[in-house]
Amino acid sequence: MLGLIGASGTGKTTLTHGIVRLLGAHGVTPINLDDYLRYSRAERAARGLTDADPRATDLDRMAADLAALRAGQTIEKPIYNHKTGVPQGSERVAPTGLVIAYGALTLTPPVQPDLFDLTVYFDPAPELYRRWREERDVRQRGYTLDEVRMAWPARERDIQRYIAVQRPLADVVLRFLPGEMGYDLQMWLRRRALAFDVVGALADAGQGAVVQIQSVAADDDGLPATVINATSDPALDRLSEGLRSRLPVSGQVNASETLQGTHPTLTFAQTLIATLLLQRG
To answer: What's the whole-model pTM score?
Structure first.
């Protein structure tokens, strides 16, 4: 089971779709944990709650469903229409192969980090995140730009209170930064991810020199980590292809093509996380 954590609009859904394409839709069960929101958008506003506030989410039901999926059981998962901002019934979900659970409060109690085989926290540069959130909320969530900007102070406050505090619990931190050719990437591998032979995996893929790797005694959370840095160099796509060709499963992307419409650093992050997860399995 893979757990993805991050504020709304940080790229969790995009990375999930990429991993589904890599590993095959029939072998992956994606679960959007933001569907466990208790209240409609209007009700949250009336109660003075943001979508990052744990009081707005049914955490007990979410934790129970995750434990059931881990045990191989079928669940009745709520559905939330994020465009209109209202709950819309439920759906039955049976775990098939890899379960990817992604949301803002993935590691918030009563959920336990040990429930997952690997956890990834999304931490894009603040200027990137604000732009991504504004674009996503206007295009896909039915907000006006003024509404997004008016809500920003309260959202940012609750992101720091309730979401950022989960970062020290994660095995991987994924950070995108503005770069000269697109997005630069920094990944921190720590906790269970430290066991991953990243140098060997990249060398086997044939283009290890494209990225920079260093070990640090303490990252920004005070944890020993392997830090990976990459830029949107065209050679990074060749490295991703090399990693992809070594995945022991067949998805919808073969080793001779790229994930269309994605940046090289995003493709690399998707492929490396899939490689890391499968090595752990």
So the answer is: 0.92
